[in-house]
Design a protein that fits this description.
Elements: E1 2-3, H1 9-22, H2 34-47, H3 49-52, H4 54-71, E2 75-81, H5 87-97, E3 102-109, H6 112-122, E4 134-135, H7 144-149, E5 157-162, H8 171-181, E6 187-193, H9 200-207, H10 214-227, E7 234-243, E8 246-255, E9 259-263, E10 266-270, E11 275-283, H11 286-294, E12 298-305, E13 311-318
Parallel strand pairs: 1-4, 2-3, 2-5, 3-4, 5-6
Antiparallel strand pairs: 6-13, 7-8, 8-11, 9-10, 12-13
This protein binds S-adenosylmethionine (SAM).
Length: about 325
C-alpha cells in the first residue's frame, strides 16, 4: 500500500483543525478511520440507489459495456479514484477481465480502511499482486500523476473511475485535477447524483429523504462524538443551498451550548449559536454537469441515466 503525503498524520491533523476553525469539516474526514468507514458502508448499503435499485445498477453495467470497446486489447489498469468499498469497480473489473490480457487495479481513497475493503472485493476478480492500494487525498495531491507513473507502466491503458465523488468535492478544485490527470488514450467514467424531474429545486427536494435519515445522522454524529462533541451540544439540521448556480444538500451541526475541543495539543472553540458544516452533496442535472465539466475542458462523450433520473454514469473526455 502506498500512502501519499496528503494523508500523513501531521498534514491530516492540520487540515482538520483548519476546517473546524473555518466551520467546515473537509468531506474526507467523514470516511476516514475504521469506524467511520463501517458506518458509511452501512449508509451506502441502506440508501445508495446503486445498492438498492436494480435499475441504477444496470446503468453502471451499460456504461461499463459501452466503454469496453474503447479499452479493448493490451494491458489495462483500472484506477478507482475515491473507490470506497470498491463494489462498482469490481463489477467493472469482471467485465474488463473478459477483454484485456493483463488487468491491474489501483483502489485509491483517502481512507486506508476503504482501500482495504476495496482490495478484498477486487480479489474476487484479480490476484492480489495485481491490486495496488493508494491512500491519497485527491484534493491535495497535485503530484498524483507522478505517483501513478510509479505504479502503472507507460504502455498500459488507463481507465479512471470517479464514482460518487462529484457530489462531495468542490467542482472547481477537483475537476481541474481530473483534467490534468487525463492523458491521450485514457478513459474516465464518472457518476453523478441527479435531481429528477423538470424543476431542478423540486427534484433536489424529492431526494432529501435519502440524506435526512437515521443511518446518515448516525454516520455524521459519530464523527462529532468521536471528536469530543456530545450529541446533546446542539442539533443536526439538513437543508438545501444554492452555490454558484448549483444546488446541494447540506447538513450543519448547530451548537446550542459553547464548547472547547482539544485536537492534538491545540484548542478549537465553538460558541453557542455557531454552525459547523458537516456534509454537502451536490445534485446536478445533466445540463449543469455538462456546463461545469466544460469549464474545465471536459465533455460528456456517453451517458447512461437511470429511469428514475436520479443517477447518471458518464464517459467523459478531455477536449
Ligand atoms: C460517496 S463515496 C463513493 C465510493 C465509491 N466510489 C462508490 O461509488 O460506491 C466517496 C468516497 O470518496 C472518498 N473520498 C472523500 N474525499 C476524498 C478525497 N479528498 N480524496 C480521495 N478520496 C476521497 C471517501 O473516503 C469515500 O470512499
Amino acid at each position: 500500500m502506498i500512502v501519499h503525503h496528503s494523508q500523513f498524520p501531521h498534514a491530516v491533523q492540520r487540515q482538520l483543525l483548519n476546517g473546524l476553525r473555518l466551520g467546515r469539516v473537509p468531506p474526507k474526514f467523514l470516511y476516514d478511520g475504521d469506524r467511520q468507514t463501517q458506518k458509511w458502508l452501512a449508509v451506502h448499503r441502506a440508501h445508495s440507489p446503486s445498492r438498492t435499485d436494480a435499475g441504477v445498477q444496470s446503468i453502471y453495467d451499460r456504461s461499463f459495456d459501452e466503454s469496453l470497446g474503447q479499452a479493448a486489447g493490451g494491458s489495462i489498469c483500472l484506477i478507482g479514484l475515491g473507490c470506497g468499498g470498491g463494489q462498482k469497480d469490481t463489477r467493472y473489473l469482471a467485465k474488463l477481465k473478459s477483454i484485456g490480457s493483463t488487468i491491474n487495479y489501483v483502489p485509491c481513497d483517502v481512507s486506508q480502511a476503504m482501500t482495504r475493503v476495496a482490495r478484498e472485493a477486487a480479489a474476487a476478480e484479480l490476484p492480489l499482486e495485481r491490486i495496488h492500494p493508494l491512500v491519497c487525498d485527491l484534493a491535495n495531491a497535485p503530484d498524483l500523476d507522478q505517483v501513478l507513473d510509479t505504479i502503472v507502466s507507460p504502455e498500459t491503458k488507463r481507465v479512471f473511475t470517479f464514482f460518487g465523488m462529484i457530489p462531495n468535492l468542490e467542482p472547481d478544485v477537483v475537476l481541474p485535477r481530473l483534467a490534468e490527470l487525463l492523458l491521450e488514450g485514457d478513459q474516465l467514467l464518472l457518476s453523478a447524483n441527479l435531481a429528477p424531474g423538470v424543476d431542478y429545486r423540486s427534484g433536489v427536494e424529492t431526494v432529501l429523504p435519502q440524506y435526512d435519515n437515521a443511518e446518515t445522522r448516525d454516520w455524521l454524529m459519530m464523527f462529532l462524538v468521536e471528536l469530543g462533541v456530545p450529541a446533546t451540544a446542539g442539533r443536526l439540521r439538513f437543508g438545501i443551498e444554492e452555490i454558484d448556480g448549483l444546488l446541494r444538500i447540506v447538513a450543519d451541526f448547530e451548537f446550542s451550548e459553547s464548547l472547547e475541543l482539544s485536537i492534538g495539543d491545540e484548542l478549537c472553540e465553538f460558541a453557542a449559536g455557531r454552525a459547523l458544516r458537516l456534509f454537502f452533496s451536490y445534485r446536478h442535472t445533466e445540463k449543469t454537469l455538462a456546463m461545469r465539466l466544460a469549464k474545465h475542458s471536459l465533455a460528456i462523450a456517453a451517458s447512461q441515466i437511470d429511469s428514475s433520473a436520479e443517477e447518471g454514469v458518464f464517459r467523459v473526455e478531455r477536449v
